Amino acid sequence: MEPWKLVVIMCFCLVMRAWFTIGTTPYLDDYIVVQAGQALFSVSLVGFAILQFNLNRAKIKTILGKLDCSALFSGLGMGFILFLFSLGLSAVITFLIAQYDLATAYRVCSFHAEPYGSQPFMSVEILIYVTASVLLPAICEEIFFRGLFFPALANKRTYLRSAVICSCVFAMLHFQMLFNVLNSFIFSCIACCIYASGRSLHYCIVMHASYNFVSFIFQHYFDFHRTRSIGHLSAVGDWIPQLAMLVISIACLIALGLRYLPKRAFWTREPLRRSNFHPAHVYGSASR
Questions:
Q1: Is residue 2 in some structural domain?
Q2: Residue 182 located in a structural domain
Q3: Which of 122, 185, 202, 277 could form a disulfide with 171 if both were Cys (CB 3.0 to 4.6 A apart)?
Q4: The whole model's pTM is what?
């Protein structure tokens, strides 16, 4: 991928994040407007992919590959592991900020004293949310970032370097606060490694969707994490469940990485033997 194309994609992501933030801020109390904005935000990625990568039906079919049912179940499990990791990471960031300024930690990390009101699970509002903020982002973002952008970068770079660049841009698209940026970067790095190690894009889409869905269920119905007073942020004892989740998730990620990731190939430009991942999907044949 040429440098100017990388700059164009970075600028697009920044503009889209600014547009979504500025455009929806006056309507935060209007549920339909916010979800419509989220849906348009996701669909715009596909529109941009059509222009930037000449995306068409045949290319989407090639990128997706064959549907593997085992990948679907594995993706569900990985999404849950990454959700546990995100809770632990949030706890660590909050704890560190709280050592210096409790009020800032409480505000920046979006804590609240009372639980949010929630809609019945099968209500129209929840179905709209699941469609606009769970399924669409998972499908559109994975097709764009893992299916197109990452292979384009890997055409002339190592997989590791390509994953870092792709994840930086992915984090820019999710820029809201420090935790979101860091969590999005780590999530994207793991997704890139999974895709390049031979898993299909279906795996990444299911992983992303399950992560979004579990986060949604937890936040709207069981939010013991952010429902707390300002005085319960600065002690290690306030975060024992989250720290346990962090340790468990890191152990699972390390074990899976050691088992499945061909580490040498990530540091070199050596093709991955077991991989269904081909940079030629995007820019044609490339000497590796």
A1: no
A2: yes
A3: 185
A4: 0.85
